[in-house]
């Protein structure tokens, strides 16, 4: 029996009425929706804050996935969208490298119970990039992943159910210039003055020991060369493509090639910094990546150095693969849907439309292409 995701065809619509610098949302939920969610957003001094309420409508206890949702209480991926007059405000937050989820990545919501959480949108979205006074539309459209308590306890975590969510509220903001900006005040000073030249191999290493700096520089230079070869392998090695991205189609192949192209471009046209002592490392995380203005920052956490330096033929996790994984998230807007080798192969075989948007599949393809 195939271990497919159980897709629960339940749409959750939330409509918001707005008042000055505040919104309130009222959910309209079908009777069989397992969870209802209410969202409201408002300007609080120099921040835009959104609050969420999750209600378990069913008769059984559920574990809700915290990743890529407000339940994580941080914005670690672009699961929110912000618009002004139809123009989208770009996500400027971080993309975190993740391992396979464990029970710690879920929150238990008992039958009939409510859970409230909040996030600060200005941590990841630069409202000040829009100098206009007016109505801002804020949307939350990521699916909510959940599993029953019984299945979680019986270790059937692969049977995650998915509830599509669509929420939209509006907020009236008078003056965006007073709002905080993502990574406000964060700068990376280096000995070398950065010049806007198209080169990939050059990078700076902050708070690194000599060994950390030298090893990471070696990996970085290797990625610069190998990404270009991996991009070519999309066309020249059809069996490798099928192994990690599934059945070929013109549309899917173009998406994969474009993703590799954007990764190469991102390393080439931006200043690259490796920060070995970042502020926001999480347990079990190898690091996170973000682009601030023209500076591409790899924030390297302790777990990163427990991995082998380079990709291997046997598919074991490596520092090289982790960096490629994060690059695909930032420049290809991929997601961490499946992480391990079995999960990535499963997506390629049964769900190629999903595999081409999964960061793990790009990591696996890249690493295997090195040995072709």
UniProtKB/TrEMBL annotation:
The keyword Signal applies. The keyword Metal-binding does not apply. It holds the Pfam family Aspzincin_M35. Residues 236-366 form the Lysine-specific metallo-endopeptidase domain. Residues 1-19 form the signal peptide. Keywords: Signal. It comes from the Eukaryota. GO terms for molecular function: metalloendopeptidase activity. InterPro entries: Lys_MEP, MetalloPept_cat_dom_sf. This is Lysine-specific metallo-endopeptidase domain-containing protein. It comes from Amphimedon queenslandica. The lineage of its organism: Eukaryota, Metazoa, Porifera, Demospongiae, Heteroscleromorpha.
